[in-house]
Amino acid sequence: MEADKKDIEENGHIAALSYIWAACLIPLLFRRKSKLAQFHAKQGLLLFAVELLGAWLFPIPIIGWALGFLVMLLSLLGVVNALSGNFWEMPFLGRYAKRMKF
């Protein structure tokens, strides 16, 4: 999948918001016609759900820290790829994001 140049220029920064906690709702609700923003918003929504479910694990040494580091790494990679206009599929979560219909 590839975004056109206009979509990247207009929605790349909005798509990057998808990976910043609950800000994933902004592109999901307000950039409905942007393929780039919708793709990243769906992945960001799933990552947000992992953060919420994993919140009780974060204080646990090693397990929580590893999950927290993984979430931060995936968020950073998501932001970089969204700003670049890439349709980067997150490991594991990406396949479920593809199936989401809004």
Characterization of the model:
The protein is about 65% helix and about 0% strand. It is elongated. The chain has about 100 residues and is mainly alpha-helical. It has one domain (about 5-100).
Q: Give the termini distance in whole angstroms.
A: 18 Å
Low-confidence segments: none
Portion in strands: under 5%
Helical content stands at 55-70%
How many extended strands? Answer: 0
**Any idea what the radius of gyration is?**
13 Å
Average pLDDT taken over every residue: 91
Number of domains: 1
Q: What is the oligomer described by this structure? A: single chain
Structural class: mainly alpha
How would the global form be characterised? elongated
SSE series: HHHHH
Taking the sheet with the most strands, its summary is: none
Secondary structure: elements and pairs:
Layout: H1 5-16, H2 25-30, H3 35-54, H4 63-84, H5 93-99
Task: Please summarize what this structure is.
With 102 residues, the protein is mainly α. Helices cover 66% and strands 0% of the residues.
What are its keywords?
5 helices, 102 residues, elongated, mainly alpha
